[in-house]
Amino acid sequence: MQKYTSILSFLILAAVLNSCTLPNYALKGQYSDVPFEVKTKSSKEEVWSKIIDLFATKGLAIKVIDKSSGLITSEPVSFKDSHTREDKNGKLIDKNAFVVIGNFKDMFGQGPQVINGDWNIRIKEVNGETVINVNLVNLKCQYITPANRYNSEHILNLPIKSTSVFEKIIADYIK
Questions:
Q1: Measured distance CA(144)–CA(157) in Å, rounded
Q2: What are the sequence ranges of the domains in the chain?
Q3: Which H or E run contains 9?
Q4: CA–CA separation, 113 vs 142, rounded Å?
Q5: Structural contact between residues 35 and 118, judged by C-beta atoms closer than 8 angstroms
Q6: For the chain, the helix, strand and coil percentages under 3-state DSSP, each to the nearest 5
Q7: Helices 165-174 & 44-58, crossing angle to 10 degrees?
Q8: Distance (Å, rounded) from C-alpha 40 to C-alpha 49?
Q9: pLDDT tens-digit profile, the chain (175 residues)
C-alpha cells in the first residue's frame, strides 16, 4: 500500500509542478534568420539619404551612423504596437506587423510587457550596384507574471522573429 501511496504522491507533485509553468509554443511559420538584402542601381549616396529620411518619417531614433562603413543602427525599437501571433496553422494573424511572437497562455490578459529590437542597416557598393542589408537584432519578447503572496515574479522569454514587413518597406522606398 505504501508503494502505491508513493507513486500517487509523485504523480500529484508532478502535475502540480507542471501546472505552475506557463506554456510556450514555438513559431510554426518560416522566418528568415539571415539579413534581408536589397539591390538597387541607385547610388550609395541616394540610398543613404533615403534610409535616413525613412528613419525620420517612421520616428526611429538612430544610435550609430557611420557613413564611411555604411552602417546605420537604431536605438531599441518597441514593437508593442506592431506585433502579431500565428494562427493554429502558423499563418500571421496581422500580416502588417513587423514582428511575430510565440503563442502562449496569457493568464493575466496583459500580453508581453517587453517586445523590442534594434534595426541594423548596412549600405555598400558592389559591382556597380548598391546593396542594402537590413537585420533586426537584439530581439527580446518577455511576458512577466506579477508577483503575489504565493509566487515571485516570473519572466517568460518568448520566441520572436521579424516578419520582413519593415524590410520590404525599405526595399520599396529605395527603389
A1: 9
A2: 26-174
A3: helix 2-19
A4: 6
A5: no
A6: 25, 35, 40
A7: 130
A8: 14
A9: 555 555 555 445 444 444 445 555 789 999 998 999 999 999 999 999 999 999 999 999 999 999 999 999 999 999 999 999 999 999 999 999 999 999 887 777 778 899 999 999 999 999 999 999 999 999 999 988 877 777 788 888 999 999 999 999 999 998 7
Residues in the chain: 175
CB 139 within 8 A of CB 76: no
Per-residue b/e over 89-127, b at no fewer than 16 CB within 10 Å?
Answer: eeebeeeebbbbbbbbeeeeeeebebbbbbbbbbbeeee
Cut 0.90: pTM above it: no
Q: Is the dihedral of CA 81, 136, 61, 46 positive or negative?
A: negative
Which CATH class name applies to 26-174?
A: alpha beta
Phi, psi of 152 (to 5 degrees): -85, 170
- Using alpha carbons, list the distances in angstroms from residue 105 to 30, 101, 145, 159: 22, 12, 11, 14
